[in-house]
Specification:
Helix content: 40-55%
Number of strands: 21
Radius of gyration: 40 Å
Structural class: alpha+beta
Shape: flat
């Protein structure tokens, strides 16, 4: 055998190989070392996207949880407490057994049974829950020292409630006791009253109040103490507000009034109630723990409440406590109000979420496309040398996962730290979806590009690559989905979508995105044709910059669809979101304006002091104060025998009031419309009703009375005869009422005295106005009313989330534009270098790059503006912004609809043009610094 002295075979080169198995270079480590910058960029993109994706559902959970807590806190404990009550024990029972059923031990046993029937997620707040026995029908207390506002004796309820000492502190005296066993025949018991009850009913320590007896002598109740509640707003006291403070009752017949109060007996003194005619009843009050429930527990809470009201829970209570036990609560209605508000807001937030999520997904796909383009030659060579497609794809998946999985975990951790105290599952799912997309995007892209072995591919510009049948079918499918979503939203609106749930909601939320997708696909197919038509005339111009830039723009890469899709989706979402936010602010401003009638309003139920308008005009920030007199219960009728129509008669000074109406766009009119003419018309001040006074009326009054004169009787019995001269839908002085506006000079002096001032001014000082107005008047500012409409954290949280989602979408759109330019940067740099060797100046190079990038930027900007406008016009009829604008609070103005906001359409589009132009100029400047020699290396395939 021939060989060499060192043991190697003849003809071989290099040192001898080791006798062990061959160890190939690790693929993943080699690739990461070869392109560390690309790996770092991918890690940053995945970490940022995963953090935003994971933070979004947690942020939504947080503001929804805060909204639920606010809803429960705003509702009084009387509404949220679940109250169980049972009548007095069966009369057929022996007296002793009936008395034992009203003692604290028996009531405690029933209380434990009630708590055992409460199902999660409803949890009882044991510290505020209570039980006891009370008289359901308060009885008269005829003692002379008690307060009698109109001579009627007060009525008192006897209440023996548990844990009185734990929830109060003695202000004077001591707590009541039941030293001896109390029975139905006990002649005297001890009781306490709260400080409010003592002050109102004139009760002192030592007072004895006599309550009528049932077939026995009156019961003497001795007051041993006056107590102050430790938590006066807690459910213990406010589930039955009567035990904390008395209530003044007015008789509907003669208007007489009397007080109703509560006397707090010792917990074991309940049996004495059997000897009174007050219809004693046992009760158990379960106060819910409002700090624990979260928004995703609302459906479970509603089910648990329904079970206690009339379901299995109540059945268990009746079985263990009393068959006649009944339950009542408004907690279900409180939860329903929250659900309705959330259902009105959630679809709007979903629109922004889907828009930003789509743009972020497109950016990840573009980043994978850039990586696939950069490694196209490498992967083609591997396939040509025998690499199997599954093997190549597995290695690509491994090297991408090594970067993406830790980055996704890091982003998830950042989101958990940034947005604590929310559900984990949704955040993990969102971050996992981002990580999986980042991992599979490059392998899938490579699988389609290298499924067939080839080293050199053909041209892939739009002029060469024709759309396939599969692409046509896919585009038609998206078109059908977009049409269905828009039709569903226009037909049902977000309210119906939010209440139905399921995939229909998601389709509706995707509607603006799908509109942008369709526009992107259509524009990608159409926009090369006008550029090619312009290339001919441009070729006849002097110079090469214009025709060359048009020719290159018309033969751009076939992968333009993704960046254009990202830009159009982001612009559509930004325009849609900006219009939503602008519509919300406009709706609040308009509702606040209708509620006040001006920038500020000072009003009283009586005539205002004569000097008040002057003082108000001198207050800082007030530009004008327009006096008006408003008679809210005027009766308009035609003829003495006809029924009257209640309307608000507004007496005004035609000049200032007409100018105010025109400035505020609230039914403006010229002053001559109200000028009274004819005998006894202007300035008569008689109120005799003989002169016919022109009036401005609301539409309903105009429909009923027409233009013929009719009589109006004011609250002071004066009359005025009016004739409707004009019709307006609204007027500043009144809201949501039928109205008649007349000249004040046609009214009697008493009726013409101003009862309200309508203020205008840019920066009204509420505190200064209230000081100047004094007591007995109501001061309302438009800014304060507007602020009151933002009451629920659901509103403010949804607005912040919407703004953040739109901003994130815009940021990803800019990133998509940068990725598109970076992908074309090597080829453009090489082109500039070649053209400079042919005499192209640096200024011409800058113009070439700018003109080449402008068509696509103009396409995206104009297309985005038009698509956003079209999406708003198409979807506006189905969108109701009332929920997010005023949160169900009483607000005039009707439904708030979506309207186009010009700034939201134009500003993002102009930003795209600025970014595209700036990047092109920066690339031209950078290429000029590097020089042409470096860009024209031998063997470079650019």
């Amino acid at each position: 055998m021939t060989g060499t002295d060192d043991g190697t075979k003849a003809g071989t080169r290099g040192p001898a190989r080791a006798s062990g198995p061959r160890v190939p270079a690790p693929w993943v480590r080699t690739r990461l070392r070869a392109a560390p910058a690309a790996a770092l960029a991918l890690a940053l993109l995945v970490a940022l996207t995963a953090a935003l994706a994971a933070a979004f559902p947690r942020a939504v959970d947080r503001y929804e949880d805060a909204g639920l807590r606010r809803t429960l806190d705003d509702a009084s404990p009387q509404r949220t407490t679940v109250q169980f009550f049972a009548p007095r024990p069966d009369l057929e029972l022996a007296l002793g057994e009936g008395e034992n059923a009203l003692r604290e031990a028996a009531l405690r046993k029933g209380y434990d049974a009630v708590l055992a029937a409460v199902d999660k997620p409803l949890v009882a707040d044991r510290a505020q829950s209570s039980y006891g026995v009370r008289t359901s029908d308060p009885t008269d207390a005829s003692d002379s020292f008690l307060a009698r506002p109109s001579g009627l004796p007060p009525r008192v309820a006897l209440v023996a409630q548990n844990a009185l000492g734990a929830h109060s502190r003695p202000a004077s005296g001591r707590l009541p006791r039941a030293t001896d066993p109390v029975t139905a025949t006990t002649s005297e018991v001890e009781a306490a009253v709260t400080t409010e009850t003592a002050r109102t009913l004139h009760i002192k320590v030592g007072s004895v109040i006599h309550v009528p007896g049932l077939e026995r002598a009156p019961l003497a109740v001795r007051i041993t103490g006056i107590v102050a509640p430790r938590e006066p707003d807690g459910a213990y006291w406010m589930s039955t507000p009567l035990i904390r403070e008395p209530s003044l009752i007015q008789l509907p017949s003669d208007g007489g009034t009397y007080w109703i109060g509560a006397l707090l007996l010792a917990p074991d003194a309940g049996p004495v109630l059997l000897g009174t005619p007050g219809k004693p009843e046992r009760y158990w009050q379960v106060a819910p723990d409002t700090s624990g429930p979260t928004a995703h527990d609302v459906s479970g809470l509603a089910s648990a409440v329904a079970a206690l009201e009339s379901g299995p829970g109540l059945a268990r209570i009746r079985e263990r406590v009393d068959p006649l036990t009944d339950a009542t609560t408004d907690l279900g209605e409180v939860l329903s109000s929250f659900t309705e508000l959330r259902s009105g807001i959630a679809p709007l937030v979903a629109v922004a979420a889907f828009g930003a999520g789509t743009v972020a997904a497109v950016v990840i796909l573009m980043a994978s496309g850039l990586a696939a383009q950069r490694r196209r030659g490498e992967l083609a060579l591997v396939r040509a040398r025998g690499g199997s497609l599954p093997g190549v794809l597995g290695r690509l998946l491994a090297e991408t996962a090594v970067v993406a999985v830790p980055a996704g975990a890091l982003g998830l951790g950042a989101a958990l730290l940034a947005v604590p105290h929310a559900r984990l599952s949704s955040a993990v799912a969102a971050a996992l979806a981002v990580t999986v997309l980042a991992c599979v995007a490059l392998p899938v892209r490579a699988a389609f590009a290298h499924r067939a072995v080839r080293v050199h591919g053909g041209r892939e510009d739009i002029a060469s690559v024709r759309p396939s049948r599969r692409r046509t079918v896919a585009e038609l499918t998206v078109l059908v989905l977009a049409t269905a979503a828009v039709a569903a939203l226009r037909r049902g609106g977000t309210d119906d979508a939010g209440s139905s749930g399921g995939s229909g909601d998601q389709l509706v939320a995707l509607a603006p995105v799908l509109v942008g997708v369709i526009a992107a696909l259509v524009l990608v197919r159409l926009y090369p044709f006008p550029l090619r038509r312009l290339a001919g005339p441009a070729g006849r111009l002097r110079g090469v910059v214009a025709p060359l830039s048009l020719a290159r723009a018309g033969r751009t890469s076939a992968s333009t669809a993704l960046p254009l899709l990202a830009l159009l989706t982001a612009l559509t979402t930004a325009a849609f979101g900006g219009s939503v936010l602008a519509g919300v602010h406009t709706a609040r401003d308009h509702a606040a304006l209708l509620a006040t009638g001006a920038d500020g309003r000072i009003e009283a139920t009586h005539a205002l002091p004569t000097a008040l308008p002057g003082r108000i005009r001198d207050t800082r920030g007030v530009r004008e104060a327009v006096p008006v007199s408003v008679a809210y219960r005027a009766q308009a009728r035609r003829g003495s025998g006809t029924a009257g129509e209640t309307a608000a008669l507004v007496g005004v000074e035609p000049g200032p009031y007409g100018q105010l109406s025109r400035e505020l766009d609230l039914g403006g009119f010229p002053a001559r419309t109200l000028r009274a003419t004819g005998p006894g018309g202007s300035g008569s001040g008689s109120g005799s009703g003989k002169a016919v006074v022109p009036a401005i009326a609301s539409p309903s009054l105009a429909d009923r009375f027409g233009t013929a004169p009719f009589s109006v009787q004011l609250e002071d019995d004066s009359k005025v005869t009016v004739r409707i001269a004009a019709v307006r839908d609204v007027t500043p002085a009144v809201t949501d009422l039928d109205f008649l506006v007349v000249d004040r000079e046609a009214l009697t002096r008493r009726a013409a005295r101003p009862t309200a001032l309508l203020l205008t001014g840019g920066h009204l000082d509420g505190a200064a106005l209230r000081r100047a107005a004094g007591g007995g008047v109501d001061v309302r500012l438009r800014a304060e009313v507007r602020t009151a409409y933002v009451h629920s954290p659901l509103q403010s949280g949804a607005e912040r989330i919407y703004t953040a989602a739109v901003a994130a979408g815009a940021g990803y759109a800019v990133l998509a534009l940068l990725l598109a330019l970076v992908r074309a940067a090597p080829e453009r740099s090489a082109l500039l270098a070649r053209l400079r060797t042919m005499g192209l100046t640096r200024a011409q190079g800058r113009r070439l790059l700018v003109l080449e990038s402008l068509p696509q930027a103009l396409l995206a900007a104009a297309g985005g503006a038009l698509t956003g406008w079209a999406a708003i016009r198409l979807l506006a009829p189905g969108l109701d912004l009332t929920a997010i604008a005023v949160a169900g609070r009483p607000a005039p103005g009707g439904t708030a609809r979506l309207r186009t906001d010009a700034l939201s359409l134009l500003v993002p589009s102009l930003a795209v043009l600025v970014v595209a132009t700036g990047v092109a100029l920066a690339q031209a400047w950078w290429t000029g610094r590097r020089g042409s020699v470096r860009e024209l290396r031998a063997g470079d395939g650019r």
